[in-house]
Design goal:
- This protein is mainly α and 161 residues long.
- The protein folds into two domains: 2-89, 3-Layer(aba) Sandwich (D-Maltodextrin-Binding Protein, domain 2); 118-155, no CATH class.
- Helix content is 37%, strand content 9%.
- Strands 2-1-3 form a three-stranded parallel β-sheet, sandwiched between helices.
- Strand 1, helix 2 and strand 2 form a beta-alpha-beta unit.
- The radius of gyration is 19 Å and the shape is elongated.
- The mean pLDDT is 88.
Length: 161
């Protein structure tokens, strides 16, 4: 409950407007992902808490949402701390520093996980060589992290099956 009150208070502080209606675009996640229902829940809480607020929820992804907010395509978006900082620093995958973005809140801890079937005989990253790997599409933080973890372990997508 405290977490919910914090999010509502943050939204009111960010989105509060005079008595006139206000339209806000909110970038969430790709279809089928967890950020779509999370975004819907936040949208509902914020619209209930701020009279006249009308939020349009649009699909996105961590990296594209940071770009979208920075480019003025949205006023708020879900993102990952790691790639948001990359944007603020002007590191890949961003072509330049983002300057119109700030982190409003941490919604939950996010971990990078690698999962393999028990009979796949994968006990380390090196064991992935020559094997198939499923990741998120390019442009998602999970895919970027996968590429970085492979590189840190002397692998690349080309070294996989």
């Amino acid at each position: 409950m405290k977490f919910q009150k914090t999010l509502v208070a943050a939204a009111i502080g960010l989105l509060a407007a005079p008595a006139a209606a206000q339209q806000v675009t909110f970038m969430t996640g790709p279809q089928g992902g967890s950020w779509i229902p999370l975004g819907g829940a936040l949208k509902g809480m914020w619209e209930k808490a701020v009279p006249g607020l009308n939020i349009t929820q649009t699909p996105g992804a961590g990296i594209s949402n940071v770009r979208g907010v920075d480019e003025g395509k949205a006023q708020i978006g879900l993102a990952n701390s790691s790639t948001t900082v990359d944007g603020l620093e002007g590191r890949a995958p961003y072509p330049k520093k983002v300057t119109k973005v700030c982190q409003l809140a941490n919604l939950y801890p996010q971990y990078f996980q690698v999962v393999a079937l028990a009979d796949a005989k994968v006990n380390s990253y090196a064991d992935l060589k020559g094997k198939s790997l499923v990741t998120q599409p390019k442009g998602n933080t999970g895919e970027l992290l996968t590429e970085l973890v492979l590189k840190m372990n002397g692998l690349s997508y080309q070294s996989l099956a």
